[in-house]
Design brief:
The protein is mainly alpha-helical. Helix content is 92%, strand content 0%. It contains one helix and no strands.
């Protein structure tokens, strides 16, 4: 029985090595695709968590702004009430003087 030629053996070995490399490349591609998919999911999870955190922070800021607005409004109401009372007192004093002037003008007296 004739033995295979040395060139044929080398060729067969090269084909076998090539097939092994193709399997290794396919396995590496599959692993890389899996890694990429896991990384994509992790990035989506991180982004979703960041969105939730930003929404919580925005809600906290809105609540704080509403509280500050309520406080400012209460302070403004109090200031207006103080000013209104002062205007009432001044109006009362001015009314008495105006009445006295009107009476003096009618009667010809001096206010």
């Amino acid at each position: 029985m004739p033995t295979a030629s040395p060139q044929r053996e080398v060729l067969e070995r090269l084909r076998s090595d090539e097939a092994a490399l193709e399997r290794d490349v396919a396995a590496a591609r599959a692993e890389a695709a899996g890694d990429a998919e896991r990384a994509r999911r992790e990035a989506e999870r991180i982004a979703a968590e960041a969105r939730r955190e930003a929404e919580r922070e925005a809600e906290r800021l809105r609540a704080r702004a509403a509280e500050e607005l309520d406080l400012a409004l209460a302070e403004a109401h109090a200031a207006v009430a103080v000013q209104a009372e002062e205007l009432r007192r001044r109006a009362a004093r001015n009314r008495e003087r105006a009445i006295a002037r009107a009476i003096a003008a009618v009667t010809g007296g001096t206010p």
